[in-house]
Specification:
- The chain is an alpha+beta fold.
- It has one domain (47-181).
- 40% of the residues lie in helices and 15% in strands.
- It has 8 helices and 5 strands; from the N terminus they run αααββαααββααβ.
- A 3-stranded antiparallel sheet has the order 2-1-5, covered by helices on one side. Strands 3-4 form a two-stranded antiparallel ribbon.
- The longest helix has 18 residues, at 151-168.
- The model is unreliable at 20-32 (pLDDT under 50).
Length: 184
């Protein structure tokens, strides 16, 4: 009889084949065929719950602040829960989500332009270029896009990377939208 040692169990777990793990890893892209959206790690809240419509408001742009959304005003779109600070913002997004959704579904624009793949953002580092919202993982990425080269160069590289990612995650022809009212 072998003595009970937690380290033995740990080694045993990784030493034995895991067919269920291989099955999961191979089939997971097929299961999650929607476009990838920058969501929190443990839930489906997009861009850390920030109001994507509020970024486009004049006072937000001039003060360069981000506005947190509320649980009361949500829309489910592209497999994520998008939160809004008001019913007005929620209704504007529901009427035209492509106008207000961030480029690359909220993933870091700078990371895509550097070939680093999909990096989640938290909605605090952002900029609007040509009426399109771009989110960044850190202020360094935003600063890179604002200074130096023309941001169009970075955008072109990021657009190509995004197209390649969408080939891996095929877009469904219609993204169902659910507008939620959590208040009475």
């Amino acid at each position: 009889m072998k003595p009970f040692y937690p380290i033995f169990m740990f080694r045993h777990f990784f030493a034995t084949p895991k067919p269920w793990l291989i099955y999961f890893l191979l089939l997971s892209p097929a299961i999650y065929a929607e476009e990838p959206v920058s969501k929190r790690l443990f839930d489906s809240v997009a861009i850390d719950g920030h109001d994507t419509v509020a970024y486009h408001q004049t006072n937000t742009v001039s003060q360069h602040v981000s506005t947190r959304g509320k649980d009361d005003f949500t829309v489910e779109w592209k497999g994520a829960e998008w939160r809004f600070a008001s019913q007005k913002s929620r209704d504007a997004f529901a009427a035209d989500p492509t106008r207000f959704s961030p480029a690359y579904n909220g993933h870091c624009a700078n990371a895509l332009s550097l070939g680093e793949g999909l990096i989640r953002t938290d909605g605090t580092h952002w900029e609007i270029f040509d009426n399109q919202l771009y989110l960044f993982y850190a202020s360094r990425g935003r600063d890179r896009w604002l200074g130096g080269k023309d941001y169009h160069v970075y955008k072109a590289v990021a657009d190509e990377a995004w197209k390649e990612i969408l080939q891996i995650h095929p877009t469904q022809s219609t993204s169902a939208m659910v507008v939620n009212d959590h208040f009475e």
